[in-house]
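Lecture 7 notes: from sequence to structure.

We start with a single chain of 546 residues. Read the sequence below before looking at the structure.
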Amino acid sequence: MKASDLLVAALEREGVEYIFGIAGEETLDLLESLRKSSIRLIVTRHEQAAGFMAATYGRLTGKAGVCLSTLGPGATNLVTAAAYANLGAMPMVMLTGQKPIKSRLQGRFQIIDVVDMMQSLTKYTRQIESGDLVPSLIREAFRRAQEERPGAAHLELPEDIAREDTKMPVVEESYVRRPLAEHKAVRRAVDLISHACHPLLLIGAGANRKSTCKILRRFVDRTGIPFVTTQMGKGVINEDDGRFLGNAALTSGDFVHRVMDAADVIINVGHDAVEKPPFIMKPGGRTVIHVNFTSAESDPVYFPQVEVVGDIANTIWQFTEELTQQESWDFSFFMTVREHLERHIADGSDDGRFPLLPQRLVADVRDVMPDDGILALDNGIYKIWFARNYKARQPNTVLLDNALASMGAGLPSAMAACLVHPDRKVMAICGDGGYLMNAQDLETAVRLQLDLVILVLNDGAYGMIRWKQTQMGFADFGLTFNNPDFVMHAESYGASGHRLESAGEFVPLVRSCFEKRGVHVIDVPVDYSENDRILHHQIQELSKQI
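Now the structure, written as tokens:
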């Protein structure tokens, strides 16, 4: 068969449901092969959005999402999405076109070395140099993208190779199981936890897997050990649980850091160095147990004393089988801190001022979203408020990026969530800066007839950087802009546009949008004037008083 047909057959064997992207003349053979396949092509309006959608598909399913571009500018538009997937541990395979490699009649028109460009952004990047190599390279790209730690892979398909005839068969996926942690390491960890006075569970990004979530829930129920999370560990265990002590949304000084300072043994599950984690090391005064698929990379802020390396779910299962609640464990200080944290989170949650305060926004969003509803957060100052104040009740119901922290991912990520979970309520939460970076794909959402509510938090500025500017004592400069009429903008794409006029309108408006279905864009004026006072000063002052 033609190499492009074989490539599509290999993708089908990998279980690919969707390919997100934009074709070019160099990928027309592949496009024709896709037309005859079971795979659904989702045409986007920008390659970056296609990459964000593929990465989020991978994040939600564990299977590599696939995106497509042509050569040159199409491929360079995938760079941010490649970094997003690779840093965020989201399995994704990128396919890019290229000019013929056996004979070229256009010099170097549009030609850059895409394989070399992707080298530092992916786990694997190769040019397909022969039709006979298609099956093995597809299998290897998916294997690399999906194995722990997941990430991005890239294959370049030259135009003449796509047309080659080949008789090679599709390569089958091999049977493989992850290695299990060695028993002596497990025994050492269990002894340390048993003899601790104030053990604490810290849940990171690498723990956000289905099997791991279930066994961590059982571990907490059996032992009663309280837990905290990083931003990308949100929702692994229901955060309404009375043993949840907070999210590390701020680098330091929050109530959650008082808890970590008081712990003598921290069970750090799924630590990922790409996140900005709280500083948990205290040489000579605390033991940190590293539980992960891979060993720890030692650096100035992380050097655990004990490492239990292997499948996380199995390791936690072994801990659960060998541990019971100990009389020596004392969580009274932890619970005192939790009471103070809960009071602070509730403060301002019913404030009627307009534009909306972030505390009220988060509380109202929690009110309207069901337990399995999915939030897809773009990047901005609101991400800190949602990470800290929003109680995630199920895994992967708060999709935020604390790795690359790229603006522009909120809308495409929400669109992918709609495709993966069409029966669940999905909300994109974007700042006015990030939203307009990929707002062109609002047309894609409308064309796909998705049911999606999009909040555009309107403050006319790059709010996160403005907060940092204030924090550093600099003058307010260079971070404000004007916005279009978001209601008219939405309606020009065929979506429904709404503008919030008062705090009390928010909950009924969002509920109405979900009931009506379709794509809804809500212009939400927000007031960030208290960010510095609360996040930089008040929290640190209050937490020190405990």
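The chain has a mean pLDDT of 95. Keep this in mind for problem set 3.
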